[in-house]
Amino acid sequence: MSEKNDFILKVEDLSVTFATTAGEIHALRDVNFAVRRGETVAIVGESGSGKSVTVKTAIGILDTNGRVDGGHAWFTFKNDSGEEETIDLLTLSKKQMRRTINGKRIAMVFQDPMTSLNPTMTIGDQIMEGMIWHYKTPKEEAKKRAIELLELVGITNAEKRFKNYPHQLSGGMRQRVVIAIALSCNPDLLICDEPTTALDVTIQAKILELIKDVQNKLGISVIYITHDLGVVAKVADFVNIMYAGKIVEKGTVDEIYYDPRHPYTWGLLSALPDLDTADERLYTIPGSPPNLLHEVKGDAFAPRNEFALKIDSIAEPPMFKITDTHYAATWLLDDNAPKVEMPKELRARIDRMLKEAK
C-alpha cells in the first residue's frame, strides 16, 4: 500500500446502487478521485450527480437502501501508536467507523447547522462530546479546548457562548459551531457538504474564509461538495466535475477554469452569474440528467450536448489525458474527433468571473 501514502484518501472504482420501489438506481459508476495531505479538493455537479453519495459511502454513512457494488476507499493516517497506517474504509463495520474514524480522523460539516446541532444541548457540551467519547478527555480540559475552538472559529465572548443553546445563535454562528465540533478531535480530513448554502452571501464569504484559515493553521485536508463553481474558484486546489454518477473531468483549479475540456464543464461555467453585463438572463444547460434506473448507453451527457458525436450514443468515453493532472471523459478529445473549442463568449464570461473572484 506504500504507493497510496502520498494521499490521505484515495477512492477507486466506487460503484453504488440504491434499491427503490421503482427499481435499482445506479447512483455511482466507477468513481475515482484522490485527496493529498493539506490539499483542498472540490466535487462539483448538479443535484443528483452523486457528489454526497460518493463521500457518504467512503465514510460509512450510506443510506440503508444503498449497496456498495465495488471499489475501495483507501485512507492513510497515523494510528494511536503513531505509526502510519492505510486501511480500506469500505471494509470497516459501522461500529468500527464510529470508534476509529468518523469524528476522530474524518469530520463532516453539513449544509444546515440546525439539523446538525442538538437543540437540547448547549453548544459547549456538543463540542466537548467528541473529545470525551474518542479520547476520554477530562471534562475541564475538554471545556478549555472547546472555548479555544470557539475563539478559533471567530465567535466572540466564547466563555459566555459556551453555555448557549443553538436557538440562541444566528445561522452564521451556528455554522461556526458546527465547524468547531468537526475540529474538536483534530481530524486529518474535513468534509464540507454545501457548507454555505443555507447562509446569506455575506456570511457565506466569511465561512469560506474561516475554513480556509483553519485549514492553513492546522494543515488538514478538505473536501468541498458543491454545485457552485464560484465557491470552488475561491477555495479549491483540485476539482472533480461529476455527472450522472461519474467523474467526467478532473484537474487543478486553474486547468478547470482556464482550460475546461468537457462540454458539461462548459455548461456549468456558463451558468455562473456575470455581474459585468447588462444581460440578466442566466444560462441553463438544456435537458435533464439521465434516469439512472435505466442503463446508460454511451456518453450520459450526449443528449444535452450540442457538440455530441455519433460515437457518443454508442460507447462511453474513457478518461483522456490532457496533462499529468488534467483528464476529461469526452470523445471530443479523441485524435479522430473534429476540433471543437469552447465558445468565445463563454471564455470571456469565465475570465470576468475569475477576475471578480480575485
Describe this structure in words.
By secondary structure, the chain is of the alpha/beta class. It is built from 12 helices and 12 strands. The strands form 2 sheets. An 8-stranded mixed sheet has the order 6-7-8-3-9-10-12-11, sandwiched between helices.
Proportion of residues in β-strands? 15-25%
Rounded to the nearest angstrom, the radius of gyration is: 21 Å
Question: Strand count, sense and closure of the main sheet?
Answer: 8 strands, mixed
Distance between the termini: 39 Å
Q: Structural class from helices and strands?
A: alpha/beta
The tally of strands reads 12
Mean pLDDT comes to 90
| Apparent shape | globular
- The succession of helices and strands, N to C, reads EEEHEEHEHHHHHEHEHEEHHEEH
Q: Percent of residues in helical segments?
A: 25-40%
Low-confidence stretches: none
**Major sheet: arrangement of strands:** 6-7-8-3-9-10-12-11
Q: Describe the oligomeric state of these chains in a short phrase.
A: single chain
How many helices?
12
